[in-house]
Amino acid sequence: MHSLIDALLVHNDIEADAYGIATTVGDIIDTLGYDGVIWILDIGDITATGTINASVYDDDAVAMGTEAEIVASRITALTAAGGDSNEMVVIQILRPKKRYCRIKVVTGTAGADLGVMSLRWRGRREPVTQVAVSEAIKLVSP
Prior knowledge:
The strands form two sheets. Strands 2, 3, 5, 6 and 8 form a five-stranded antiparallel beta sheet that branches. The protein has one domain (4-121): Jelly Rolls (Sandwich), CATH 2.60.120.380. A hairpin with an 8-residue loop joins strand 5 (51-59) and strand 6. The chain is built from no helices and nine strands. Helix content is 0%, strand content 54%.
């Protein structure tokens, strides 16, 4: 029997924290052997005048020296006034064209509380080895 946790690799890309005006860059994700990546942006309080923009970038090389934005992944102008505080936003890249990718989150005008985790799924070889910082509980029914 297949288990969802056996097909996922969970990673904390950007630690949950209060961020000022900045571009915060997530960890580089190696997509080799996976069918896709989902990033979950956990948005906390956005300062009254703050904005959040996010986008995924990809590259053929791990150094990300020639990275390019995946324009279709762009999330723009999340604001407190728009009701975006304390919400989650999901970006999915299905069958990435390049091996490496990462998310960048821009907090503009004022700060915001946020964190980002990624899920690589359907590893072509199961089970997926979880990284040390991730905690996974696997429950098996009798």
